[in-house]
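Input record (one chain):
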Amino acid sequence: MRIPAQSVCTAIRDDIVSGVFPRGGRLTEELLARRYGVSRVPVREALRTLESEGFVTTRRHAGACVAEPTALEAADLLEVRTLLEPLGAARAAQRRTEAHLKVLRGLVRLGQERARRGEGEDLRSLGSWFHETLAQASGSPGLTALLTQLRHKIAWMYAVEQPARPAESWAEHGAIVDAVARGDAERARALTALHAERAVAAHRLRRTGPESGPDGVRTSQHAVNTLSGRL
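The corresponding structure, as predicted from the sequence alone:
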């Protein structure tokens, strides 16, 4: 069965973001094909996609390598997100479906519950899910794709501290959902802008990656989903 290049791309991207492949490290088609159990064709396609996204760069005499973004480039990403997330929330207030609202409200309830219990790891994943759903509710595939790419790259470049008062953070999420539910685009935009600006302070630039194994990469890896285009 031919494994889609999209699945291979997702697996490589996840391994770059989690630090399995160090910044500046080479990404040979042969190594990647062996690592993920695929042919070199989907690997080649995946590397082209990742280069267009800024995760991979091609160097003369070295081939494909993991990109090495500067601190300025990383800071720009946070600024771009503070501009795009409010736009997405405003669009969501105009275009959201009842299904989107149901998921968003459910996530807020779970987030508030986990915040009371102090379950930080659950809060991190719930927060990501919340913002992904809010972006999808914008009804703009292009905007959703941009925000998704931004989240991947920010996770790669920054370590994020848990908010000191997680209950307050989830109260902000709840207020955003209320504005979206009422169709109040301007309030949804303003609340999301404030939330995004506050979140910037929790980001700490990553200086070094995790330890690598003898082959130059960590031994852990993300499996390639052979049943669909996503992992």
